[in-house]
Structure formats: structure tokens, C-alpha cells
Amino acid sequence: MGKRVGLILRIFLLPLLLIVNTGCIPLIIGTAVGAGGATYLQGSLGKEYNHPLSETHLAVLRALKNLKLFVKEDELNLNNAKVSFETETGKAGKVSLEALTEEHTKIVIRIGFFGDRDKSYMILNALDKEMR
Known about the structure:
By secondary structure, this protein is an alpha+beta fold. The chain contains four helices and six strands. The chain has two domains: 1-35, no CATH class; 38-131, Kinase associated domain 1, KA1 (TATA-Binding Protein).
């Protein structure tokens, strides 16, 4: 009986310990949590889209226009883009876009120095509508 328990422990426990020690479990959990939703952290709102950079960039411009936010600067490069805007109250904001792959783009919205959670989510909701 003791040998059998030892064998079972080696078969199941050893691989589990290897996964935990290499950090794979936090990576798996972090990927699952961040895959579909947005994350607001330290004044910035981020989300990933399964769309190319150019398509996401155009959707950002349309969303800002629909919200009647003034676009001050628009820069599109091969792997990233930046759209600076101003809110109706005069706060400066920025949407940064990064191509993670050809079909996957990460966006980060930041308004003002400390961030504006409500306004950031309003922009994100407008962007989500444009991406449909």
C-alpha cells in the first residue's frame, strides 16, 4: 500500500510542483482573467481585441468622434498607434494601441494625470460598439 501511495504522489504531485515552481499557474490564471475583459489599473484602462491594429485604430477614431471628443494628434505606425484627444472639460487623454500579432491589438486609455475611470469606460464602450 505504501509503495502505491508513493507512486501516485510521484505521478501527480511532482508535475504539479514543477508547474507551480515555474510560474505557469499564475500565467494561466492571469491569461484567463484578462482574456475577455478590460482592466483598470493605476488610472489606465486596457483591453485586447481580436482585430488588426489598423482596424482597431479606425474604430478608436470613430468612437472618439461619436463621443464628440476633439482629436488633437493621430499617429499610426506599423506596430503601434497613438491618438491624443481632449475631453469636453479640457482634460487631455490618450489611447495607445499596440499590435500584439497581425490579428490582435492591445489598447490602453488614459485621461488626465490621475486617470478618469468613468470617462475611460465610456470611451471603451463606444469602441466596443464600433468593433462589432
